[in-house]
Structure formats: structure tokens, C-alpha cells
Amino acid sequence: RKEVEQDPGPFNVPEGATVAFNCTYSNSASQSFFWYRQDCRKEPKLLMSVYSSGNEDGRFTAQLNRASQYISLLIRDSKLSDSATYLCVVIPDSNYQLIWGAGTKLIIKP
Amino acid sequence: SAVISQKPSRDICQRGTSLTIQCQVDSQVTMMFWYRQQPGQSLTLIATANQGSEATYESGFVIDKFPISRPNLTFSTLTVSNMSPEDSSIYLCSVEVLGAGDEQYFGPGTRLTVT
What we know:
The complex is a heterodimer. Chain A is mainly beta. Chain A has no helices and 11 strands. Chain A has strands at 4-6, 11-14, 19-25, 32-38, 45-50, 55-57, 60-65, 70-75, 84-91, 99-100, 104-109. The N and C termini of chain A lie far apart (37 Å). By secondary structure, chain B is mainly beta. Helix content of chain B is 0%, strand content 53%. Chain B contains no helices and 11 strands. Chain B has strands spanning 4-7, 10-13, 19-25, 29-37, 43-49, 56-57, 68-72, 75-80, 89-97, 104-106, 110-114. In chain B, 35% of the residues are buried. The chains are: A mainly beta, B mainly beta. The A-B interface holds A 31-32, 34, 41-46, 49, 87, 91, 96-98, 100-103 and B 1, 31, 41-45, 92, 96, 101-109, 111.
């Protein structure tokens, strides 16, 4: 089992819809979690951290489910500009090495 | 956050040559890292660039192939040595900013093609 797994997609979603995707992790002692966004041919950019209590930033909501060992990202009222690959990142312990998921590709269609 | 620049942004190199990539940050940072991202793949950590000492390499990466320097807290270089077409990839520098927890910020990347 991979340390961090994501559905590669692509998720084809109409503009204005709500879309959610998950990321599972294997190490139950993992400490920190993040969602990054990567546009085609660009570097990854931090979208949001994922806190135990959940995290909301505008149309984006990230949640952590420790019992089932996954994090989720919910995008409401999706925009064309949300089209990108969303990368899940987990820090499994205190050595600060980030473990990257392979990414979920999201395509928002007009 | 931090503003990170990389040079060159892209290059096409011949097999057997070497390329040095520079990473410059606009503020002092605690940690600097070098990643590789091959087409359609996620990021793979090459090494952690340590200021004033040898870099810490991940499994599958060695100093002879990817020598790294970090002479100060704002600058690092990665050299891809004796290149082969398999080294064609995007090379990304990232940093952890003091006081920003575990969040990492990335440079724009260097797109390397080896012919």
C-alpha cells in the first residue's frame, strides 16, 4: 500500500458544481497534512493546511478523518479557474519529510 | 511565505554534460529542498540542502550525480551531472519559512531536457 494515495481522476465537473476528493494515508501517526494545487507546467502552490478541526477558506473546505486515515478537499461553486491538479501532502512523523500523493486532476467545464 | 527564484527556467542539454540550477530566496529560511517531478508524476524529494554541510540525500539519489551546495541561508545550487535522457524532468527548489510551521513553498522550477 502506498503511503499516500489519491484518485488520479480526471474529475470532469460542470462549472458551479460542488466537487470533493479524498486522500488516504497509511501512517496513523502522521502529524501534518496539506493540500497543494499545481497548474499545468507550473510549480505546486500551497492551497491550505488541514487541521484536526477542519479548515475552511472561502469555497474550499479541508477535513481530516484520523479514524479512517484520510483527508478531504471540498470545492463549492466551482470555477473554471479551479481546473488544476490537487496534490495531497502528509508529514508522517517529526523528520519533516513530506510524502506527496500523485495528485487528482480536476477539470471544470463551462 | 517567501519569494523563490530559480535559474535557468529551462534548458536543453546534451548527454554527458552537467547543468547547475540555482535557487535564490528573498528571506532567510530554515530548510531548503530539491525535488524532481517527471511528466505526469508527483514530486520526488532528491535531497535536503543543509547550510554549511553536506546535503542529506534520499534513497536512490547520490552526491556524485546530484551535488548540492548551500553556502548561506538564502541560496542553494543543484547540479545534475553526466546527464542522460532519463534526467529530463522538472527540478524544483522548495523552502520552509521560519515561523510558518511545516508549510513549504516552491520555486518556479527548471525544465530540463536531455538529448
